[in-house]
């Protein structure tokens, strides 16, 4: 029986998950592949910490080169994370003619072109299903099954930490800071949570989805990013009253030769399937011109789910080799020469419905003043509530608008914030209630 | 540029959808494939009816042999449906060395082994993503990305007609017969709806999913099938009161060397993502040992969504050829020689929670009698309601049970139905509230 040798760089949490797949599921992989997958070598600077899996001493090494230069190793799995030495190791593996599987979205977002060009020159496969949505087979769905579609839009809940925090804020009425603290204690959030809660991780993943769906290269700095740290229990409460949930959404759209690419807290109707994606789960809703809406849901992180995606890629590479040819599907879904660089629509041009929250004195005429300004800017009001009465004190006034451009919303809010009855800067959250 | 020629058998609704993909999305397919796909010939007995798409007269033919024996045609798409002549045409295409794409689950359920063996002998690919879940990329997800998992269970909403009817019954409180009649008028249900509403179509699809997930062959007659025609507005109303929705679920499980394969109306908690799959949408929830739960959602039927899946398969076959080798992934997910035939667990051995509805006289001691019998059979009661009071008349009594085997439930209900206070045969619906 044909055998493929695999080398693993990085014996952390996901690395341990990958080792467990080799140990537990060798039989089913062989029955599905018709070849044997062998984990030949595992490299990590720390090979003494107990990760809950037993690895033969002969397999472990502290020297990555023992993986990268072993001529018997066919596939290298990179699970180190970060930019360096991950980048150098991946390039070295490619140079040595090895196929590469990685879950490293930061590496792909920053050095993707360099890595994919090197792989093309050398004729090896680079796969990265685990980099977006963890165990959810979303990249393959786009590149393979749905590839006869022109995609119209992408809506993703792509960061488990944010979704866990928002879910608990929603269920418990708790505030961001206290839930974050508890999430950190439970291991659902990093000690420095910025990368997750400020939406950067979600943006890295959106960049990959936008490229795969729309065939366009996109720079991270062209993605508008807003995290969840400013969401208050009050906003969540009002959302509920209007029939919405707040989720951190990655949104990608293509229309008239432009793309939208943005990450921000978003209100979505409670009866939408995406609204029920709670806790650490992730989901992606894609809309293609023929398939219509498709939603893929599952665990976006965690050692086992991520290991499932990594090993799916290892199996795909092995199948390519068995069938007689690799590089079967372009890494970014389109041939490199067909990729374009579409302009990214500035945020001020995007069109959305908005949730507006004002903090204004409770006295006659205030609502008329605010709605008068909105009216002058041509912003239609879908509904309005002022739930509290506290004469001559500041109370929240919430207005749900019809569609408007963000430029107009910004201008109207700036003018409203000048009113002497308005006591705090006004606040808005975008609403997505179409998703088609 | 390399070109692949495609022949289409069957110019019905889905056929027209496929033609539209060729007409509208030639560019994106070329950019993703690096080759040109050409629809060389379309065969149908009726080539005069207007299907809303324009096809060159030279492409249309009434003679299927002009597709099947044209040496320039690489891939044949079979969209005739049914057993014959679909089976003969598919076998002929294979004999002529052509790859085949089909959406015909009935054909696969009945003649799958014959067709796949012929394809193996001839070295061609047979793909059928559109046969289950329409546009949802579920078969590929199992065969490709999730293939390092041992699957534990499958839960599927796989028939749009049933889901449409149940959704309207739920939203409107209407009864089965009137919604069915309206669904027929609107074209969402066939004139003879038996195949859909009695669960046979769902069972065909479950048979394919069980084979792909568990690596076991399963005969249709070993699948327990119960449709939705006996579901009443009363059951739907009670389900709602207990926090459940009723869906026609396809359920597959593997445990201890046995499989479960059954299709029946099922109560699922309203806050589960599957509960929000409404109208003609389909969804599949799969649970793998590493990936955990994954849900895939989309349009399970319709000309465009199905055409998307068909063309995804055509692209996959073309990519195999461009990369230098077909037959990359086993058609049933496992190598044929690794497929087994696991015993199917008899229904009396399945374990579930149950919704029990009794129709009994409203008089003191009735609930005690019923619950006494349940208690003697060791059936735990989770909750009970008797919402109406109509002294000395028959009223519904509903009991939600803890887990019990179906054998015990059947025996207990038989005994309860002997009580003189019980006025109609008792009725049960299975509950799935774990799905892991």
Automatic annotation (TrEMBL), chains A, B:
Cofactor annotation: a metal cation
Catalytic activity annotation: L-homoserine + NADP(+) = L-aspartate 4-semialdehyde + NADPH + H(+)
Keywords: Amino-acid biosynthesis, Metal-binding, Methionine biosynthesis, NAD, NADP, Oxidoreductase, Threonine biosynthesis
EC number(s) on file: 1.1.1.3
A Pfam family of this chain: NAD_binding_3
UniProt superkingdom: Bacteria
Active site annotation, chain numbering: 205 (proton donor)
Biochemical pathway: Amino-acid biosynthesis; L-threonine biosynthesis; L-threonine from L-aspartate: step 3/5; Amino-acid biosynthesis; L-methionine biosynthesis via de novo pathway; L-homoserine from L-aspartate: step 3/3
SUPFAM superfamilies documented for this protein: ACT-like, Glyceraldehyde-3-phosphate dehydrogenase-like, C-terminal domain, NAD(P)-binding Rossmann-fold domains
One GO biological process term: threonine biosynthetic process
GO molecular function: homoserine dehydrogenase activity; metal ion binding; NADP binding
Residues the entry annotates as binding NADPH: 105
Record-listed L-homoserine binding positions: 190
Enzyme class name: oxidoreductase
Positions annotated to bind NADP(+): 9-16
CDD domains, per the entry: ACT_HSDH-Hom (cd04881)
Domain ACT: 355-430
Family statement drawn from the similarity comment of this UniProt entry: Belongs to the homoserine dehydrogenase family.
Classification via NCBIfam families: PRK06349.1
Protein name, UniProt field: Homoserine dehydrogenase
């Amino acid at each position: 029986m044909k055998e493929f040798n695999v080398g693993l760089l990085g014996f952390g949490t996901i690395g341990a998950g990958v080792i467990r797949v080799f140990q537990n599921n060798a039989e089913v992989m062989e029955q599905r592949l018709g070849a044997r997958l062998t984990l030949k070598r595992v490299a990590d600077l720390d090979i003494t910490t107990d990760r809950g899996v037993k690895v033969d001493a002969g397999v472990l090494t502290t020297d990555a080169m023992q993986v990268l230069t072993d001529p018997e190793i066919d596939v290298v799995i990179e699970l180190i994370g970060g930019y360096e030495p991950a980048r150098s190791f991946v390039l070295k593996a490619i140079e040595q003619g090895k196929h590469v599987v990685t879950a490293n979205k930061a590496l792909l977002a920053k050095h993707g072109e360099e890595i994919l060009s090197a792989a093309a020159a050398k004729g090896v496969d680079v796969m990265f299903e685990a980099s977006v949505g963890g165990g959810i087979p979303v990249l393959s769905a786009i590149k393979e099954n749905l590839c006869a579609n022109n995609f119209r839009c992408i809506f993703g809940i792509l960061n488990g930490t944010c979704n866990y925090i928002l879910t608990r804020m929603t269920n418990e009425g708790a505030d961001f800071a206290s839930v974050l603290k508890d999430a950190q204690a439970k291991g659902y959030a990093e000690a420095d949570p910025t990368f997750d809660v400020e939406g950067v991780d979600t943006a890295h993943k959106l960049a990959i989805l936008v490229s795969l769906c729309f065939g366009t290269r996109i720079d991270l700095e062209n993605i508008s990013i807003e995290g969840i740290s400013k969401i208050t229990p009050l906003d969540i409460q009002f959302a509920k009253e209007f029939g919405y949930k707040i989720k951190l959404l990655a949104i990608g759209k293509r229309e008239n030769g432009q793309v939208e690419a943005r990450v921000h807290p978003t209100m979505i109707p409670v009866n939408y399937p995406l609204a029920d994606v709670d806790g650490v789960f992730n989901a992606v809703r894609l809309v293609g011109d023929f398939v219509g809406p498709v939603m893929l849901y599952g665990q976006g992180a965690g050692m086992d789910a991520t290991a499932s995606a990594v090993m799916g890629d290892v199996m795909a590479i092995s199948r390519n080799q068995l069938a007689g040819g690799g590089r079967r599907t372009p890494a970014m879904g389109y041939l490199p020469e067909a990729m374009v660089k579409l302009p990214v629509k500035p945020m001020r041009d995007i069109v959305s419905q908005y949730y507006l929250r004002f903090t204004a004195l409770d006295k006659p005429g205030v609502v008329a003043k605010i709605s008068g300004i909105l009216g002058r800017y041509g912003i239609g009001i879908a509904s309005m509530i002022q739930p509290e009465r506290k004469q001559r004190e500041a109370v929240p006034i919430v207005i749900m608008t019809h569609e408007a451009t963000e430029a107009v919303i910004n201008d109207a809010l700036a003018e409203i914030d000048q009113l002497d009855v308005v006591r705090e800067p006004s606040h808005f959250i975008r609403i997505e209630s179409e998703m088609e």
